[in-house]
């Protein structure tokens, strides 16, 4: 026969109260934080899943930053190419006007002066920078893509790339175009005498008034303009692809966030109900303990 002493009874009652209070405090903590997992011991299995989802979300955030950086590269390039195309259209109209016999030497010299100024504008756009790097220099570490004095290309043929997707096969995308592809012989032409580019040859032809030279320069200008527009089309295609990858990444990121919320988050209605029940149970336990555990003489002597 087992004898239940007052000390044993007190220990059992206090252990029960402590357990009930612990559950109540845990539910209060979940309700205040909105999270079901505060420590690994809350649910080891869900903790592993939450860690994996957090790692996936961190990867998604990094890919999103890469996409934003790639979009900035492409938008900067597209803006420079659009402005250059507008300038070339103006230069072409000057060549056609210079070929007209109604314009004399003075008018053609004025046109040549304007072409010189427009060439400087094209050179400036060819050396457009993003975050201190020339966007048309490829991966070359150089201050300018084109030499300000000679117009010669000083970059390389490699393109800047960004990892924009976790896919191993198509996760990396080129976000730049090279200057030799975009501006070809506009500023410098190694095959021409003295390396003079198309724009410089147009200026010289206008000053000389040689119709043959102007016709040849006009043909070269059309060829170079077509190459520039083709490059701009490439930029547009890469921008569209990047926008598609960005949209897919946002969908994937939202899915990860939803999964993480389901693993870590609480069911608000259920948690409030549990808290109410646990508070009621704890108060009832306190009342029962007060009746069961009678004070002894030692309690009065302490």
Write structural notes for this entry.
By secondary structure, the protein is mainly alpha-helical. It folds into 2 domains: 68-261, f41 fragment of flagellin, N-terminal domain (Up-down Bundle); 270-302. Helices cover 68% and strands 3% of the residues. The chain contains 8 helices and 4 strands; from the N terminus they run αααββββααααα. The chain has helices at 6-33, 44-99, 105-126, 179-182, 198-208, 211-264, 268-292, 297-301, and strands at 129-130, 133-134, 161-163, 172-174. The chain has a two-stranded antiparallel sheet. It has a two-stranded antiparallel ribbon with strand order 3-4. Strand 3 and strand 4 form a beta hairpin. Helix 3 runs antiparallel to helix 5 (198-208). It is rod-shaped, with a radius of gyration of 38 Å. The mean pLDDT is 84.
Largest sheet: 2 strands, antiparallel
- How much helix, percentage-wise, in residues? 55-70%
Structural class from helices and strands? mainly alpha
Task: Determine Rg (CA atoms, Å).
Answer: 38 Å
Low-confidence stretches: none
Shape: rod-shaped
CATH topology of the largest domain: f41 fragment of flagellin, N-terminal domain
What name goes with the CATH superfamily of the largest domain? f41 fragment of flagellin, N-terminal domain
The CATH architecture of the largest domain comes to Up-down Bundle
At the first level of CATH, the class of the largest domain is Mainly Alpha
Annotation, overall tally of beta strands: 4
The fraction of residues in strands falls at under 5%
Number of distinct helices = 8
Q: On the 0-100 scale, what is the average pLDDT?
A: 84
Order of helices and strands, N to C? HHHEEEEHHHHH
| End-to-end C-alpha gap | 33 Å
Spatial strand arrangement across the major sheet: 1-2
| Total count of domains | 2
